[in-house]
Amino acid sequence: MKYQSQAVALPYFVAAIGLFVGQIIFGLILGLQYVVGDFLFPEIPFNVARMVHTNLLIVWLLFGFMGAAYYLVPEESETELFSPKLALVLFWVFLVAGALTIVGYLTVDYATLAQYTGNDILATMGREFLEQPLITKVGIVVVALAFLFNISMTVLKGRKTAINVVLLLGLWGLAIFFLFSFYNPTNLVLDKFYWWWVVHLWVEGVWELIMAALLAFVLIKVTGVDREVIEKWLYVIIALALVTGIIGTGHHYYWIGTPEYWQWWGSIFSALEPIPFFAMTVFAFNMVNRRRREHPNQAAVLWALGTGVMAFLGAGVWGFLHTLAPVNYFTHGSQITAAHGHMAFYGAYVMVVITIISYAMPILRGRACNSRKSQVLEMWSFWLMTIAMVFITLFLTAAGILQVWLQRVSDTPMSFMAVQDQVSLFYWMREWSGVVFFIGLLCYLASFFIKGEEAPAKA
After folding, report:
1. Would you call 70 helix, strand, or coil by DSSP?
2. Environment class of residue 107 by beta-carbon count within 10 Å: exposed (0-12), middle (13-18) or buried (19+)?
């Protein structure tokens, strides 16, 4: 660890992993509720379990991004963090606010929660992924602004590199686009139009900048390839991501009442969206093949390579499968969408956060890498989680294809619930794949506690 203030990243990483475990537990509950409808009802209704599952996903990834920034920025800027104390205060504020919100979801019915938390003052609740109460949203904005102030001041007083500037741009974009969660027009078309400015422009816009910056940082550290080479790749990737991702928002506008030209714009630019993810895959493998040293943390190298491949498959290939307007007409909102969402989130963002944690956590604990035994178990966790996610995606894709055929294409279309009965086998297979994923996650957790011969951390 080069700078003492990098240590503030540790609690963020620990919280991220803990919340990740919670997200997967609720994912397993949801998967079982698909086939056993009254499982844990009325204690945890389906809509509440889904809300907790998706909100935990967002919160733990934000913890991961913040921890990554606190670790990366001082090293890239070659200066101590502007205010480590502020970073620790924000950690506890964010963690407590997030925990109270989840407790509120689980213990109070949603309408009552809205009444208690000021939704009558400014109605922002009830929107998918943005279900957080008004006071939680305000808290997120306050934490984000203080976090960005801390990071921005660190960058301003230190060295400016392509990596920390791109990361800063992505983090500022994340905060700015979240402000649209406060705009909730009564017109449903406008509501959906601007809702995607948060959801899409996060995951297919500014989050891609964060992902690229984190991946570039780790690859510089583990390969020893010249910074100039990696930064040139970084510029190309983020340019492609922004051009295709911003205009590609149009693939959400096909059937919500917007002008017809969005079917052309959305289809064309969405078809180009796999390109930056493919470039990221080539980038990762190219840098590892050109490496000038064999880094002892081979687990981090594996996660870095896996990020590129799985992001391309999930966000690129599975996104392209149903992004063209004539295809989306039939597949919109089907289980094919769920298949794309699961693999895309895992490949693009879950894996990149694990990559930076895998690289940085041993250093934060005083060594260059974990022991060989620990890394072997971590690599097992990589393969268990990744293969399980591939099967989850395949089973949901099969369910989606059958759903589209029986419910939307057939000359004698079946009702929604009748179709759900027909695809229940795939839901069971998805659930068992989720169990394997959870076992892989437990292996990942266990790898942090395995001792062995350790290498001292390099300065």
Report:
1. helix
2. exposed
CA atoms of 420 and 426, how far apart (whole Å): 10
Q: What Cα–Cα distance (Å) separates residue 51 from each residue in 184, 185, 231, 317, 422?
A: 19, 22, 38, 27, 26
How far apart are alpha carbons 318 and 339 in whole angstroms? 8
DSSP letter at 315 equals I
Residues near 226 by beta carbon (within 8 Å), at least 6 away in sequence: none
In degrees, rounded to 5, the angle at the alpha carbon of residue 359 between the alpha carbons of residues 129 and 67 is: 40
- 223-245: per-residue pLDDT in tens? 988 889 999 999 999 999 999 99
State residue 292's pLDDT score.
80
Tokens in use for 231? 């930064």
Instruction: Answer for the pair 34, 392: CB distance below 8 angstroms, yes or no.
Output: no
Whether 2 shows a pLDDT value over 90: the answer reads no
Q: Residue 201, Cβ neighbours under 10 Å: how many? A: 22
Bridge partner residues of 367 (DSSP): 456
Structure pTM? Answer: 0.95
The CB-side HSE value for 427 (13 A sphere, CA atoms) comes to: 19
Distance CA 121, CA 305 (A): 47
What's the rounded Cα separation, in Å, for the pair 164 and 75?
A: 9
* Amino acid at site 361: M
- 393 pLDDT higher than 50: yes
Query: Concatenated DSSP letters for 233-291?
Result: HHHHHHHHHHHHHHHGGGGGSTTTT--THHHHHHHHHHHHTHHHHHHHHHHHHHHHHT-
CA 347 vs. chain centroid, Å, equals 8
